[in-house]
Write a structure and sequence with these properties.
Layout (H helix, E strand, L loop, with lengths): L3 E3 L8 H16 L7 E4 L1 H7 L7 H13 L5 E7 L15 E5 L2 H14 L3 H9 L9 E7 L5 E6 L10 E8 L3 H4 L6 E6 L4 E6 L5 E5 L4 E5 L2 H4 L6 H18 L3 E8 L2 E9 L22 E3 L13 H23 L8 E2 L2 E2 L2 E2 L1 E3 L1 H13 L4 H4 L1 H20 L8 H22 L2 H19 L18 H17 L2 H9 L1 H6 L6 H15 L21 H8 L6 H22 L2 H26 L5 H17 L14 H4 L7 H12 L6 E2 L22 E3 L1 E4 L2 E8 L14 E4 L7 H4 L4 E4 L7 H9 L3 E3 L4 H4 L5 E5 L4 E4 L30 H4 L1 H4 L3
Helix pairs in contact: 9-13, 12-13, 13-22, 14-21, 15-18, 15-19, 20-21
């Protein structure tokens, strides 16, 4: 049988015979692209010979004859595995390449070395990571005429940095391509726009070394001084190479990772493979923050803190009116002032939500807030418990009972708007509880620190833990499910192995009851939102973010919430009795009253915040129905694209470019939005009033120490629930914010660090319940802390030290302390006089 096939005899369907690389070179050759000629020693040769045996004489003769037919020229000899250069696994760099191979004997030796490279430690580990069975793997060998390249490099026909498919990225260096592929040289890098083949940007490097021919194979030599900083490709050459890349991509119908070489001014393709793990496309992050009305004030506060990302187009269009109406109602009912809609709102700047206040509205709120102080208690707990919460529940129930199939598109969209209005009205009512909780805790803390606490005694927050609240009850519910599951060993093993599969309907005996119990947990607690933009699912919609915490509970990773809570409550009561026993009667009376006041509001605040998302699962069901109808009508690709439309587009207006909107959203998400706008005006002074300023540099980040203690551990930076599965026990949770829906991760976390928040935010309160340090309101944690980095979290000092960056000789000095009593009428709570100073203190 023949073991050799020429490139022209092969195509992309011949991977089993020629491996990924050989099949691709054959495909490119047959497509008329400039590929140096060559042949492939097929996988049959590898299977017939094996790694350790000598090459049989007839096979050696066939290889030599094919090489003679090439002209007895120097060749490149490359491994070509049957699982290589595929969309799901590129195998780049896993097998070996031998360049400038001269003579028949050297060629045969290179073939044997290629076969052996399939079993290097590196290659075996790579296959194991990708789940590739070595028994089903074989190796072909590519033999290709060497191009005596004056320059070479790599070309991506889509931008691997931002995912943009309309850009090509070129890397170029002098000499052979081995220095580029091997990473031994800093390359020139160019970005070329496909439309017009214009060079959009270029970076010309100092190229110190280059790979060249040597007597035996290749060698690295210094680049001549006059060429070190000279561009390898001028604009004309870059355009010609990019045009070649576009042809290759069009032939394959997918973005390609191409190795190229240039000799005597002519470009050659020496390898092409699909780009793996190409990110979704995104635009450049915004750099200018232009507001619609430069005379108004724009603040990221209150409800905005639960909207850390740019808004989806649909949510942005619908929430502005909802917030405006709820704020107007609050001001009429509580502040006794009428503010026109143009004076307040929740517009977006570069996609980020901002509260907008006119100067007149700010003045009305400030004056009205001072008059409203005496009405604060009545508008707090009684209004939430007896009016706002029942009304919200009723609004959700009314829409849940209506058959969606019987509703028109307009009725469904109106229903979503009605439910969103109900949610924002509820949130506005909750804002009356937050200042009461804040003031009660702060009053107790100040009294305790000034008149009760002795050196070495625990902080005031120790007296406020050990109580039930919605997030703690949710954790108990999950642990109760885990305890029940442990009683059925076969089921427990199935849940440990793949909880998603059991939830989807699989599993052994008792799996049906497990699903019923999990569903009951979700029905009670699964509406808590990770992000208020309804584009993001809740646990009711997708319980996957809970699975890691469920596994941890199933394995008994800690004593559990009930034991932890009992211990906290016992210590709290012991400390209380000890304090009261040594205080004189006046101080004991004040201590007891202030403590009971603070203890009353702490859990209620969390209960109120946890139920903000009651309407979110129902809104998502209605929007999913609209999405399915739009797909059926051929107007969008998938139901989830409904979130990227505007209301008028849902109801029949021409649909805009959804892919472009997604790319814009991704680019904007990389930006750090200013906390106050307009920039470069006196409004900039408000920047320091907020916990998150976004302007920290250096190895030590400063925030608010919200829960005491020190921990050194690995940082796990999570952007949302899709990342929850990456969190491992004992890591530091780093997030932009945490809402009650994030509480399942606190079981795993050694500490918590956030961009936004303060001593009275959800993160702070729950971290204290768990007894873990928390540093909140850093403004930059998710952008400055690398995922997987080692950090030291000091909840007492309010610092996070990046241990890989810290200078051991530099003192960790804290910046000037922020004053917590600054006055700003911001957010819904800004209408409350007691809530004014609260903005700096933080809230969740």
């Amino acid at each position: 049988m023949s073991y050799v096939m020429r490139f022209a005899e092969l195509g992309r369907g011949d991977i089993a015979v020629a491996g990924g690389k050989g099949a691709n070179l054959g495909e490119l050759t047959r497509a008329g692209l400039p590929v140096p000629p060559g042949f492939v020693l097929t996988t049959a040769a590898y299977r017939d010979v094996g790694v350790g045996a000598p090459i049989p004489e007839d096979m050696a003769r066939e290889i030599t004859e094919a090489w003679v037919a090439l002209g007895e020229v120097p060749v490149a000899v490359r491994s070509s595995a049957t699982a290589e250069d595929l969309e799901e696994a590129s195998f780049a760099g896993q097998q070996d390449t031998y360049l400038n191979v001269r003579g028949a004997q050297a060629l045969l030796e290179a073939v044997r070395e290629c076969w052996a490279s399939l079993w290097t430690e590196r290659a075996v580990a790579y296959r194991a990571r990708h789940g590739i069975d070595p028994a089903e793997l074989a190796l072909a060998v590519v033999v290709q005429r060497m191009v005596e390249a004056e320059a070479a490099g790599v070309m991506f026909t889509a931008n691997p940095t931002n995912g943009r498919r309309d850009e090509l990225v070129l890397s170029a260096a002098w000499g052979l391509g081995e220095s580029v592929v091997g990473g031994s040289v800093t390359t020139d890098d160019l970005v070329v726009e496909k439309a017009g083949l214009r060079v959009a940007s270029r970076t010309t490097a100092d190229k110190a070394v280059m790979t060249v021919y040597a007597d035996e194979r290749t060698a690295e030599v210094p680049v001549p001084a006059e060429r070190r900083r000279a561009p390898v490709l001028d604009d004309k050459a870059a355009a010609a190479l990019a045009e070649l890349g576009v042809r290759v991509e069009q032939h394959y119908g997918a973005p390609q990772d191409i190795e190229w070489a240039r000799a005597d001014g002519e470009f050659f393709i020496v390898q092409s493979r699909p780009i793996t793990a190409l990110p979704e496309p995104e635009t450049a992050p915004p750099t200018e923050w232009v507001v619609p009305d430069p005379k108004a004030f724009y603040f990221r506060a209150s409800i905005v803190e639960q909207l850390p990302d740019p808004l989806s187009p649909l949510f942005a269009a619908m929430v502005d009116g909802s917030v405006t109406r709820s704020l107007q109602a609050l001001m009429r009912e509580f502040l006794r002032v009428d503010v026109a809609a143009p004076g307040i709102g929740l517009p977006t700047v570069n996609g980020y939500a901002y509260y907008r206040y006119s100067r007149a509205a700010m003045w009305q709120m400030t004056v009205g807030g001072t008059r409203a102080m005496r009405r604060l208690p009545a508008m707090g707990l009684p209004n939430w418990r007896d009016v706002a919460h029942p009304a919200y529940q009723a609004a959700v129930a009314a829409w849940r009972d209506r058959p969606q199939a019987d509703l028109t598109d307009a009725e469904l969209l109106d229903g979503v708007q009605e439910l969103l209005d109900a949610g924002t009205r509820y949130y506005t009512a909750v804002q009356a509880i937050i200042p009461l909780a804040a003031f009660s805790e702060l009053s107790f803390t100040r009294f305790y620190d000034a008149l009760v606490r002795r050196p070495g005694e625990p902080p005031a927050s120790t007296f406020l833990v050990g109580f039930d609240s919605a997030p703690i009850l949710a954790e108990k519910s999950l642990w109760s499910l885990a305890e029940w599951t442990r009683g059925h060993p076969e089921l427990a093993d199935a849940v440990r192995a793949d909880p998603a599969a059991v939830w989807a309907g699989g599993g052994p005996e008792h799996a049906d009851e497990w699903r019923a119990r999990f569903r009951a947990h979700l029905d009670r607690f699964g509406h808590a939102t990770y992000n208020l933009d309804f584009m993001h699912p809740t646990a009711v919609d997708d319980p996957a973010p809970l699975f890691e915490a469920l596994r941890f509970a199933l394995d008994g990773g800690s004593a559990g919430p009930a034991a932890r809570q009992l211990a906290s409550a016992a210590r709290r009561e012991q400390l209380t009795e000890a304090a009261l026993a040594r205080l004189d009667p006046p101080r004991a009376l004040a201590f007891n009253r202030l403590l009971r006041w603070a203890q009353r509001y702490a859990p209620v605040r969390e209960d109120a915040l946890a139920d903000i998302g009651l309407a979110w699962p129902q809104m998502r069901r209605m929007l999913a129905e609209l999405g399915r109808r739009l797909v059926a009508a051929g107007r969008i690709a998938v139901p989830e694209d409904v979130y990227w439309l505007r209301p008028d587009e849902i109801l029949g207006a021409p649909v805009g470019d959804v892919a472009e909107r997604k790319a814009l959203w991704r680019g904007r998400r990389r930006a750090t939005p200013p906390q106050a706008l307009p920039q470069h005006t006196f409004v900039d002074r408000f920047e320091g009033w907020f916990p998150a300023s976004g302007k920290q540099e250096g190895a030590v980040l400063h925030g608010t120490g919200a829960s005491a203690g020190q921990v050194t551990a690995t940082a796990r930076v999570l952007s949302g629930p899709a990342d929850f599965g990456r969190m491992q026990p004992g890591e530091v949770l780093v997030a932009s914010i945490t809402t009650p829906a994030w509480t399942s991760l606190f079981t795993l976390a050694a500490a918590v660090v956030t961009d936004v928040g303060g001593p009275l935010s959800h993160s702070s309160i729950v971290a204290r319940e768990y007894g873990i340090p928390a540093v909140l309101g850093t403004g930059v944690a998710t952008r400055r802390i690398p995922d997987g980095a080692r950090v030291r979290v000091d909840g007492d000092a309010g610092t996070v030290t990046l241990l890989d960056e810290v200078d051991a000789n530099a003192p960790e000095t804290a910046p000037a302390a922020r004053r917590p009593w600054r006055v700003a009428a911001v957010g819904a709570a800004g209408a409350l006089a007691a809530g004014i100073w609260l903005r700096r203190r933080g809230r969740g």
